[in-house]
Design goal:
The protein has one domain (3-313): Farnesyl Diphosphate Synthase, CATH 1.10.600.10. It is built from 17 helices and 2 strands. It has helices spanning 5-8, 22-28, 45-52, 65-87, 93-105, 115-118, 120-127, 132-146, 153-163, 166-174, 180-200, 202-207, 215-220, 225-228, 235-255, 264-286, 300-313; strands spanning 3-4, 9-10. Helix 4 (65-87) runs antiparallel to helix 5 and helix 11 (180-200) packs parallel to helix 16. The longest helix is centred in the first third of the chain and has 23 residues, at 65-87. The two termini are 14 Å apart.
Length: 315
Amino acid sequence: MGNVARDGTAMSGGPPRAAAGLAAARESAAVPEPAAVPEPADAPNALAARAAEENFPVALRLLPPRRRRQLMAVYWFARVTDDIGDCAPPGDRLRLLDELEADLGRLADGTARRDEVRALGPVIDACAIPVALFADLIQANRQDQLISRYPTFADLLGYCQLSANPVGRIVLYIFAAFSPEAAARSDDVCTALQLVEHWQDVAEDLRAGRIYLPGEDLDQFGCSEADLAAPHASPRVRSLIAFEARRAADLMNAGAPLVGTLRGTARGAVAGYVAGGRAALAAIAAADYDVLSAAPRPRRGRLLAELARAYVRGR
């Protein structure tokens, strides 16, 4: 549930933790079907194609159509937010993000103008999702315009609290599975997903002028920014990435027991997020931690195997 922010920072983000049985009870309750979520203007095919590139199944095909529509509406908003932060003319990004947040505020009185914002309305209403969680995703992209280096791992975790963790909490609300305990585990899963994405995309991020590897860790392993710009990872860089991958794996394992607290489609969805992170970590390891020559991406077979394992084991 990691982040959908940036290039998939989590749906994460990003990445859930919940009271046992709550999701199943809500699924079986006789509640009115919420209003249909509008399909993205450029899709569904284009949006679905982008979702398929993520580390995790954004809207598993096994989910009921209503849940898929809700998750894809959230994904659509997160992708648009990230595209503004990454792809809009640099001088326009902060203004465009401000305008997006202003439109988010118009949902309350039904005057939102942008399609991806209006699509959130039925989801927020049906699932009682705090609008502040979507505003956090916008703030993460503002931060990307102002901060390009993170001195400490704690600083990077603070960024993940905005870029990844809100998405996981949104997912919990969608599945009627939100609780403080569930949110704490969700944050671990989503932060892990965001970190994994950063480790996969070191070269791409550097080309965009950003380094998410903490400065203190670069110093500890004797790595410079010039090392990150090389066509292949040096032994020092590989050791650094292996160290960071273990950190992400530890966070994923800490949050994964959330899966065992869920039932039905909620369990399958969250198991998918956990599986995506683990499969991506396996891809990084299979590349011998050389994330500079190419961004390691998980194999479909490994993803499906991890999904089955997480679902059955509940972690």
